UniProtKB/TrEMBL annotation:
SUPFAM superfamilies: Adenine nucleotide alpha hydrolases-like. Residues 23-247 form the NAD/GMP synthase domain. GO terms for molecular function: ATP binding; glutaminase activity; NAD+ synthase (glutamine-hydrolyzing) activity. InterPro entries: NAD/GMP_synthase (IPR022310), NAD_synthase (IPR003694), Rossmann-like_a/b/a_fold (IPR014729). The keyword NAD applies. NCBIfam families: nadE. Pathway: Cofactor biosynthesis; NAD(+) biosynthesis. Keywords: ATP-binding, Ligase, NAD, Nucleotide-binding. GO terms for cellular component: cytoplasm. GO terms for biological process: NAD+ biosynthetic process. This is NAD/GMP synthase domain-containing protein. Coiled coil: none annotated.
């Protein structure tokens, strides 16, 4: 047996129903808005599937007869970004009838990198430069949220993290895309995000593209992580919930090649988890 066979069984047991999930999630989300007197939302649209599905959920929530959501600010913030990122974000917003605000911070990023590196005598890497892109988008999101609040629409900043990335792996920028007020898709595996996106009518250009944060040229999430989203889903959704004996029994049930691949990916997942554990633990008071 291959580990992919266990993934099929796990998905069958989970029996995810996108329509049921959408109805329950949007009702719960609207209840939150009503309870807290919130009527606006700010969302960074990147051209990726997570922000696309989150926008679609916002629009769906706004369509409810008793919706308290009255204003959506979809903001695209290019910073040395690929052309596809803007094009897909614009296509998405046009599809759902939401005006897209574009705030290009490319020149600001260049100036800030130069200033910091010169002052501290550092030379940044592609990775650190990419992380700064994520950090820089946070204050814009919250400034826009404040502006909407002052204009009569008390607002929150929306997150776009899914369970596979933002859970065990903590694969996000702590005070970049991780600095948000409300998460909608945090309980979904990546495969389920795509199912919700398809159900809600997210454009195919987004649904068929390999996931990428676009924080540096030709970056792809699975290549950066070193394992697939399918593996993360099985590992975090099923394997980690077994006791040690059950875990070993499952591993031993795989054929030789699949067992070796599973163990290799397992070790890689654990390495990412340990590297990012401080994010999960939050601020530490010592």
């Amino acid at each position: 047996m291959k580990w992919e066979d266990s993934l099929v069984s796990y998905r069958t047991q989970r029996s995810f129903d996108p329509k049921l999930w959408i109805d329950e999630k949007c009702k719960k989300f609207n209840d939150y808005f009503v309870t807290h007197g919130i009527s606006g939302a700010v969302l960074s649209v990147s051209g990726g599937v997570d922000s696309a599905v989150t926008l679609a959920l916002l629009v769906h929530t706004m369509s409810l007869s008793n919706s308290n959501l009255k204003k959506i600010c979809a903001v695209n913030q290019p910073i040395h970004s690929s052309g596809w990122a803007y094009n897909r974000a614009k296509e998405l917003c046009d599809k759902f009838g939401v005006e897209m605000v574009t705030i290009d911070q490319t020149e600001t990023h260049k100036e800030l990198i130069g200033l910091v590196n010169k002052s501290c005598n550092y030379t940044g890497t592609v990775f650190s430069d990419g992380q700064l892109r994520s950090y820089m988008r946070t204050p814009i999101n919250y400034y826009l949220s404040q502006l909407q609040s002052e204009s009569g629409f008390p607002s929150v900043v929306m997150g776009t993290g899914n369970a596979d990335e933002d859970g065990y792996l903590a694969y996000y920028c702590k005070y970049g895309d991780g600095a948000v007020d409300v998460q909608l898709i945090n309980d979904l595996h990546k495969s389920e995000v795509f199912k919700v996106g398809k159900y809600l009518g997210v454009p195919d250009s987004i649904l068929t593209a390999p996931p990428s944060a676009d924080l540096w040229e030709n970056q792809e999430d699975e290549k950066e992580l070193g394992f697939s989203y399918d593996f993360i889903e099985l590992f975090t959704g099923y394997f980690l919930k077994l006791d040690s004996n059950e875990q070993q029994k499952l591993i031993d049930s795989f054929d030789k090649d699949s067992k070796e691949e599973f163990i290799k990916n397992k070790e890689a997942c654990e390495k990412v988890h340990m590297r990012n554990l401080h994010k999960i633990n939050g601020v530490v008071n010592i």
